[in-house]
Amino acid sequence: MKLISVIIPVKDRITELKRTLDTVLNQSYENIEVIVAENNSKFPEEIEELIKSEYGENVHYLKVHPCKNANIARNAGANASRGEYVAFLDSDDEWESDYLASSLTHLTECDVDFVYSSAIINDSVSLKTVTARKFLAKEDPVNYLFGKNRGWAQSSSFFMTKDAFLKVSWDESLGRNQDLDYFIRCCDSLKVACMTDAKTTINWVLGEKRTIDFHSMLVFFARYTKRMNVVSKIRFFLIYFRLAKSIGDFKDFSQFLMVSFGLNKNNK
């Protein structure tokens, strides 16, 4: 039985982390390595103590210094891993008990390097299934994410070979859109397959404070604007308009619009 390494970046969220770890250790696939990578928590010693006292040798705690964002923690954890396969999971999300076994089977049967899958969104009020799908003929992964018939991809449903990770690492400069950027670059460089079953639960906390990372938005848009069709560009702007509206901050969003329209003009 080949070893699967599970990489979990964590920033505080001790209660959620415990729930997440329990779903990992409850996997039907038994040969796993669990690495919790520290991502600039306020009280990292509390997380380390939780892991030592409740999980012992079943979970490895990796101190990452300095660590400015989750991508740095993900890369550090995956680079330190010993498994032939790597699975990423956010510290507040959950897997069904057969997630790893199903992902490995799908990756092997499809003879690919990377698998992404559907998920269930839990916003504390209701549950909603978001469906991942296969690419349409000649479909760009950018337009898969933002186009008219857009699909789904999120870090907690990314499963890949270790060799594939060594070819495509996470962009440590991004504080937002990092999972979308990683998905696009994996699709550009690797053989990928979609698992339509929803065996991942993404937990969204209503009322949780969120910010707009203006720099990351611009980096992402500049990187992929030439590949976006009209629908994708409109949807990209709408997503961030709604985010700005939800937190009552239109200043950075207005600046983003001004700069992004300049980028569009220069790229024509």
UniProtKB/TrEMBL annotation:
Listed name of the protein: Glycosyltransferase
SUPFAM superfamilies documented for this protein: Nucleotide-diphospho-sugar transferases
Species per Swiss-Prot/TrEMBL record: Aliivibrio fischeri
Alphabetic keyword roster: Transferase
Pfam families referenced in this protein's UniProt entry, alphabetically: Glycos_transf_2
GO MF entries: transferase activity
Highest rank taxon of the organism: Bacteria
InterPro entries reported in the protein's UniProt record: Glyco_trans_2-like (IPR001173), Glycosyltransf_2 (IPR050834), Nucleotide-diphossugar_trans (IPR029044)
Every Glycosyltransferase 2-like domain range: 5-173
